[in-house]
Design brief:
Layout (H helix, E strand, L loop, with lengths): L1 E9 L4 H15 L4 E8 L15 E7 L2 H8 L2 H4 L2 H7 E9 L3
Helix pairs in contact: 1-4
């Protein structure tokens, strides 16, 4: 089992575009033995402290293995909508881990 945490920073004004991409991408996760464990939309009250730009959303996803995650990333249907991701996301940090 691998875990993917993603900190997503949105381009201001492109929230709707980001939601359009997520509406396509999130359901595809299950096609590759993945599960969206949580999707958190942050606000100013969510943070006790921060040493970096605060993300718009935080995702935690698990996949059965790394190959499933790579297959998700290469999914042809998802690739058709990457232009929405590129238009809406300023930056993102992807953290890969495992359960200890």
């Amino acid at each position: 089992m691998i875990y993917i945490t993603q900190l997503i920073h949105i381009i201001p004004g492109e929230e709707k575009t980001f939601d359009e991409f997520e509406a396509v991408a999130i359901p595809i996760i299950t096609k590759y033995n993945g599960r969206m464990l949580f999707r958190v939309r942050t606000n100013e009250d969510s943070f006790i402290g921060a040493q970096m730009d605060k993300p718009y959303e935080i995702h935690l996803v698990e996949f059965d293995n790394e190959q499933d995650f790579e297959n998700f990333r290469r999914d042809e249907e998802r690739k058709k909508f990457l232009h929405l991701k590129e238009k809406s996301i300023k930056s993102s940090i992807l953290i890969q881990g495992m359960k200890l």
